[in-house]
Amino acid sequence: MVEYRPDKSKVARSFAAAAANYDDVAILQRQTADELLDRLSLMKIAPQSILDLGVGTGRNLSLLQKHYPQATLFAMDIAPDMLQQARKRYRQDLGLKRWLPGSSQKLQLLAGDAESIPLADNSVDLVFANLALQWCEPAVSFTEIQRVLRPEGLLLFSSLGPDTLTELRQAWAAVDPYPHVNVFYDMHDVGDAMTASGLSDCVLDIEAHVLTYPTPMAMMRDLKILGARNVNEGRRRGLTGKKLMRQVIAEYENFRIEGLIPASYEVVYGHGWKLQPMGQRPAADGSVHIPLSEIQRR
């Protein structure tokens, strides 16, 4: 299978254009975020700093803040317009009357890409990434996440697998050979990249989510509003003609079930930890024992 890397500049432009209306159709994003938050509640972690990577419009910021009121939040997104929406929503959700500096402000905004995170090494305790990493090269993004995590820090994420939007992919494949649906990495490739980055105790699983629509066009309109447009480097250039679109819709109609059009999503959930360096793991009494050989090298 040919792999198509996403055009990051197009990703940024698409999500910037989607910022104002994104929440109106972000059904899957809310479902996966709630699942991540449920999983987070089972983790033994008390983070002092949290990176919401791919923060979008900031729906999860106040939820993270309420769960960890002592934590400083870093909200990062590739689209600056999303960051402005996130700041506004965070303030509204927490009932802040105005944007205050100093101790009352626990949110910092970062424009950036998960493949080049603008934070120092060992600077955050928790990286929370809801449906963001599918736009990245796993080997690069997981290495960056491992770099910014402090020892004993946690990465918790959701992403999309290759069976996402399989109905739309098959409908287009019946019409022309170009990639019209974004190509995502397999769970096993994601797991290999996590382990290679140095993350440990990695756990991954897959859940199928299906959204339904009255027509194929209604589904495609929602994708456009979300900013989830075709960003493959090998995509067809130019506008899609009406004749071609009618053919695609006719092919998609073959998937109609009980009067509705399905849109299937393969959601990959995962987490991994950054362990203490070897020889510096806490003992049962909480002390840290450093080998004599380590001391002699210092």
Largest sheet: 7 strands, mixed
- Beta strand count: 7
Which structural class best describes the helix and strand composition?
alpha/beta
Q: Gap between N and C termini, in Å?
A: 50 Å
Question: Counting H and I runs of at least 4 residues, what is the number of helices?
Answer: 10
Low-pLDDT stretches are: 99-104, 282-298
CATH topology of the domain at 8-160 and 184-207 and 267-278: Rossmann fold
Reading the helices and strands in chain order gives HHEHEHEEHEHHEHHEH
Determine and state the CATH class of the domain at 8-160 and 184-207 and 267-278.
Answer: Alpha Beta
Q: Average pLDDT, to the nearest integer?
A: 85
What would you call the shape?
globular
Cross-sheet strand order for the largest sheet:
3-2-1-4-5-7-6
CATH superfamily of the domain at 8-160 and 184-207 and 267-278: Vaccinia Virus protein VP39
Features:
7-stranded mixed β-sheet; 7 strands; 298 residues; alpha/beta; disordered C terminus; Rossmann fold; 21% strand; 10 helices
